[in-house]
Structure formats: C-alpha cells, structure tokens
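hey m, so remember when u said the tokens were messed up on ur end? i reran from scratch. heres the input so u can diff it against urs
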Amino acid sequence: MKVAIRNVERYGSLNFLSWVYQGDWLLDYERKQVSVRYDKRNITIVIAYTGPINGEPGEFLGFIQARDLKREKMSPAELNSIKKKLRDEGKEVDNYSILNESLSRFEDVEQNRKERPRQRRKLVQQKHEIKTNKSKVVELFPETETPEIIEPPE
C-alpha cells in the first residue's frame, strides 16, 4: 500500500488526490497530521493512522470513505484521466464532477457492451450473405443482343 501524510482539516475532513475524505472520528485529530495508506487499485477508501512518531508507524485510526463515493471504485490512473478530461472541457474538478464523469463513462461502457453483440451479428450476417448470395439479377437487355427500338406513333 502507498503512504501519504495529510493534515486533518475542519469538520474531520482531509484532502487527498483532489477528493475530500471525511470521518466523524477524525474530529479529534483536527489540525494534526495523519498517515494515509491507500490501495492503488481503489482510492475511494483509504486507511488512516496517526502521524509517524520517531520513525515508528502510527496507531490505526480507521477507514475513511471519499465523500459521495459510497459504492464507486476508482484507481489513481482513472482519476487522473477524468480530471484531465474535465480540465480540457473547462469544468470544475471536484467530487461531484468526477463522480458524474465516472458514471457517464460507466453508462457508455454499458451501452457499448449491449450494442457489441448486435454489431457482431450484423457483421456475421453480411459475411454470410456475401458467401451465399448469388446474384439473381436477370438482364433485360443482354449485351449480345440489340434491343428493338419502338418508335412512337405520329
């Protein structure tokens, strides 16, 4: 697990990777440093320890959930990608915009997942038609014969 040191701010919250993490039990540690450990596969939940003292690891405090991200999972790479996209679009980078972008990506993936079998079936059907579909076109005027020219009555 990766480690980062952060200061606990007002209302028992701390900022980490542009997200706000909050826990009621952090109220006792306002204006103090805590050690934050996180899994690089999911940064929506981090583990807090008291600040390291004399090089020794701190005491376990608890798990902290990113505010408004109760059921989401996200890696730091995903988060950076979303933040870059939001900045490129000129949008504000905060928990809500990151969550909305994450949800829209999920919806896009789900839509593509549902459309993919249809696209495959279409492609297989087209290939099958190309193989089995012999031309059934009958030439009305074969090239070897000259058509009769009928002149209109005067």
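this time it looks ok to me. Residues 95-132 form the longest helix (38 residues). if urs says something different then somethings off w ur setup not the seq
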